[in-house]
User: Fold these one by one.
Assistant:
Number 1:
Amino acid sequence: MYLTKEEEKILDGEFGEGIQKAMELIVALGEINEAERLVSIGSAQVSGVSYKTIGDAGIEFLKDWSKCKVRVLTTLNPAGIDLENWKKFRISNSFVEKQKKIINYFREMGILISCTCTPYLIGNLPRFGEHIAWAESSAVVFANSVLGARSNRESGISALACAIVGKTPLYGMHLKENREAELLVKVSADLREQADYSALGYYIARHFNQIPRFTNITPTLDELKALSASLGIGAINMFQIEGVTPEISGDGLEKIEIGDREIEEVYEELSSCEDYDIICVGCPHCSLEELRRLKRIKTEKKVWVYTARQNKWFFENAIFDTCMVVSPLEDMGIEGIATNSAKAAFYCRNLSNLDVKFAPIRELL
Ligand code: F3S
């Protein structure tokens, strides 16, 4: 892989050991993927923030890297706790302590402690064609598809390395030829709300791994967010929608049709119970518009709403900095949840071993 003079100096350790390690990682990644060179990035989004997902090994890794500073705007995925209000929940002191340690390491590196999976709603909004290095599948799919930015699906570690170097290897989704649609999806299902879009994405992610181009749908921003998140459960990093997304390319596509039966199938597949302890909304984190809609609904039910801390002024009772998947719900006495997100339903069942009901919000509330 071609390296500039400055990149070679970084690799030789002339700028210090920390950035050298980050560069070694990026160069290895580039060589495995046959990248021609590196490309500058506008921002990074780092995942692997919750103690629940990275554990003690993750803390040791971050301790080692915490002396490095990031060179570009870098935002952070949700942590395992609400960093201010964790006392309201049954979380062990040791979990809280370790989580705070992780956050401090990220802070030392110059990373914005945003703790949200919707960085594009809180100020990290890439431009069309901009190269970025984001980890967090839902945000990667949204950025590639809706914004027209260019990101591979980085791991937490590679996103961090790219943030430290300010560059990423030029391969995969950074190249125009890999962004063409391969599958034409005619949607004949009657999609009425966010959960239906979530179910649509999940169905495609479970059965296909080509870039889909949808026809016959005109989703809102929140529905695009839901579709991005569930498509990200599989290997898909981008979608196109005729008349909606900025990039429409690729022809001679394989054709399929998705009707009400396929959507219904997803609701059934992802639901394992009728009784649950709480309703969880906000996977991905709720936008202001969703919060506005939720505020209008009067319900006696126990609803936990997850969103970015920036929205606290508008919805004080929400839970910030964390989410239903990366917080230790299973250790907090919760056995079952209901959600309008296919992604949350999938991971709460498979990662946290919870009982789950997946249904549209109208039905749940
Ligand atoms: Fe975000 Fe957590 Fe869902 S990180 S996309 S709310 S699983």
Number 2:
Amino acid sequence: MPEKPVPPILTTTAGSPWPDNQNSQSAGPRGPLLMQDYQLLEKLAHQNRERISERVVHAKGSGAYGTFTVTGDIRSYTCAKLFGEIGRTTDILIRFSTVAGERGAADAERDVRGFAVKFYTEEGNWDLVGNNTPVFFIRDPMKFPDFIRTQKRHPRSNLRSATAMWDFWSLSPESLHQVTILFSDRGLPQGYRHMNGYGSHTYSFWNEVRERYWVKFHFKTLDGHRHWTNQEAASVVAQDRESAQRDLYDAIERGNGPSWKVCVQIMPELEAEHTRYNPFDVTKVWPHDDYPLIEVGIARLNRNPDHYFAEIEQASFSPSNIVPGIGFSPDKMLQGRIFAYADAHRHRVGTHYEMLPVNRPINPARTYHADGAMRFDAPRGMDAYYEPNSFNGPVEQKWAQEPPLRISGDAARYDHRDGNDDYIQVRALFHLMNFAQRERLFGNIAAAMRGVPAEIVDRQVAHFARVDPDYALGVLEALAHQG
Ligand code: NDP
């Protein structure tokens, strides 16, 4: 047998040698234990703190590292360095997740999937925090906490409530598009490798001459769409609650990590005033006929994290993280998330969460943010601890300011329903589905409506009828069939 190397010494968190890791210190062999056994206290106290609070949404997730490689030249639209010359490669991290289930929930559940990408670029981190669907349930962030409450547990029964979900959806018809996707085949992917990712929101690009374009991001699976039916998923969950984590982890260990073709849709800035739908409404897509997909690169995952907690549970993505050449848009949901995501991380992970290795940019971050939890570094030469200063501290970069955002109108609480059609694009999707896909859609909806009061079902079916009478009829038949 080869000789084993001498193992490293075990220490306290302060680095002092740890004398005994099997026996606590006691007054006599039968106890009691001594208050001075600091090693025991440290060990128990650390165990109590091994969990951080789980994410309020997207709690159950998986993730891996990889690369983004440019295959199409879009430098006429953006000066973002990561979209430079063909062949340029940027390291990425992608975290996938379900939305509603808690940290221990099963993977194979019907739910939207999170698809959050961190690009470690030379000009800072760009986070594209999207989903596997191109749209979302609501278009105003004022409604977000209420919507999420309907996906979580009832305060009294502590059970998920189909009544709450359909009550909210039927009173918020802007959700119809996303609801139709959720109950279609794509609402239950076989794993994270077999689904598309979408930035969902409209963002903007700006180029060297400071022209702005609106942009949507698409990640098209190169591993093929694969979905479970409800029945298949039930038997998967019965045997394996971690089916998506296992599928992704194993594929990468086998050297068979997934990849996606990354595409953009581009809209010239002023065209946004003339589209027949609001291009900043996240309940809408931009039809491909109007804005064709332009291929820009390939995203590929090839490395599992070494430590799930350190690198995935603490991975913190926020749409507020953009880089020069990429900007925001008036999309109200995006504007809400710009605040809410970074705020969630400051609360959940800690004030200086972006100093953690998984969140840290590859270029040095130099800020004037001061103290607070998790201040790991001790910057030298700290005479420049305010700004402006005469001590050679970091200085602002005016060139990085995006072009002015054109805004029209008065500040007011505009009714988000005015001028917004909630049915046309759902109809286009419904008409893409063949007979068998529609039958599964009807069956999935009927199954999810079990126990919902008739008044709420009727209100929702009326929305389906406005999309297409066949949609409503199909759901009614499926409801009758299930009894
Ligand atoms: P296209 O026929 O050009 O594109 C249809 C799109 O629908 C494709 O991207 C396809 O993805 C996707 N798709 C197919 N089945 C489903 C499903 N069950 N759930 C979600 N997406 C699905 O049509 P249009 O661009 O004119 O859009 C028509 C409708 O397609 C829209 O109203 C919208 O509901 C849906 N859609 C449109 C997207 C867009 O960005 N324009 C994006 C995704 C959906 P794939 O190519 O991967 O098969």
Number 3:
Amino acid sequence: MTTLRHDWEKAEIAALFDLPFNDLLYRAHSLHREHFDPNQVQVSTLLSIKTGACPEDCAYCSQSARNKAEIERERLLPLDEVLEKARLAKDNGAHRFCMGAAWRNPTDKNLDKVIDMIRGVKELGLEACVTLGMLTEAQTERLKQAGLDYYNHNLDTSPEYYGDIITTRTYEDRLQTLEHVREAGINVCSGGILGMGENREDRVSLLQQLANLPKHPESVPINMLVQIEGTPLHGVDKLEPLEFVRTIAVARILMPRSVVRLSAGRTEMSDEEQALCFFAGANSIFYGEKLLTTDNPDENHDQQLFDKLGINQQNPVSENALA
Ligand code: SAM
Ligand code: DTB
Ligand code: SF4
């Protein structure tokens, strides 16, 4: 029985990153097998329910009003349109429907509308996840009562590098929202983005933050930056693919019972790189042709990849997750 640790030191995590690749993957994969069926991958489908004109200044994001990315702005989508997309996702085999809004935080009026969407998604028999920015305690409680299964709120990067990426809200703000979500009894989905020009110490530090939370997030999305023209991070040096795989492996070792999602950035990854990520301990993906504003691999390609790897589209639930 693996004991879950919340006291990881940076030096210990750095030592895992420094292992020879085969030793690291062997350790990560062995732990992965202890806790999960290695041939099962959870699939979530994403929908942007409110796109663009966001007041935050996240340097990676197409939706920040301060960036110059060409995207189609949209107001909060109507309920029937959202549920139509959720029905389609379900027909395509998704387990979870994740709805994202380009807000700093939701207003109570907007939250009412999102709550109707959550109830509708749940009635279809799908798990519901939303990502709406910062939440108050009272708002988190309302989401819990609506039956929300997961709330996504990423730490994005290390506390040390954070100020280079976002200035309009603090790391502490993010930790606070995560605390509200955890205390309301909603499963936490929290991870970060790699390939933003951070160094390995930052990747160590991000994983340390996630693993040393009072409870490991039930879901840990690891995104590869999708470089978007018109954002400050467009053109930043790309991360070496094997370093991405190493980060997944270390996440698996630090948080052995969490579902680790190979998240954004898959369109630029080869099948071989993705296969290594699954071996290293990733057991969730976003499925469907679009993420929020950018492309995701097409469904046929993903289906073929699953077939080639003998992966079943099953729902491995984190051993920590609340039913
Ligand atoms: N506005 C809300 C917020 O930021 O909390 C929710 C939506 S926001 C788009 C959700 C997450 O998507 C971000 O925290 C970030 O980790 C990820 N993301 C956004 N743009 C990305 C990009 N270009 N590449 C990779 N991940 C990205
Ligand atoms: C997460 O960690 N990644 C997703 C989801 N949570 C909301 C978002 C990825 C966005 C990629 C860029 C885009 O499509 O705009
Ligand atoms: Fe806004 Fe979220 Fe994009 Fe930041 S990541 S600019 S908060 S939509």
Number 4:
Amino acid sequence: MKRIAVFPGSFDPITKGHEDIILRAIPLFDEIIVAIGTNSSKNYYFDLEKRLEMIRYTFRNEPKIKAETYTGLTVDYCKQVNATHLLRGLRTSADFEFERSIAHINQTLYPELDTVFLLSLQEYSAINSTIVRDILFNGGDASRFVPDGLDLSK
Ligand code: ADP
């Protein structure tokens, strides 16, 4: 059976922390789908097309990695694409507590899907998309926190 992982998130924008987790997961899976979940009630900094384009650009040389969008429950999307695993990154114990409750709910909703956690690199553990957006919003240079060569203009 093909091992297909879904890495869900908003990726507003993708950061070096996300990139690192995804790259380190490559040897574990046959395919990794970086999936942007869309929530119409949420306001995003970058529009969906731009977020998708940034992920595709980041992994342009990685044939195992795809970027897609989805609506609705993450587990339903995982079923739809025959995912065997859900991939998540852990930065802190707070991440762990949050992720544990989601993973337990997902186990109930879709027992065949296993959640796999990879620990972030220490140097990336303080990076998150909210901080990157704050820097951009205030006219700062956020390039060191996002994958190399990304165009951060809207
Ligand atoms: P959302 O924006 O929907 O909250 P995130 O972009 O925060 O989604 O997170 C998607 C996944 O990436 C989560 O598993 C999260 O723990 C992980 N992640 C986010 N930032 C980092 C980082 N700096 N290092 C490792 N994992 C990270």
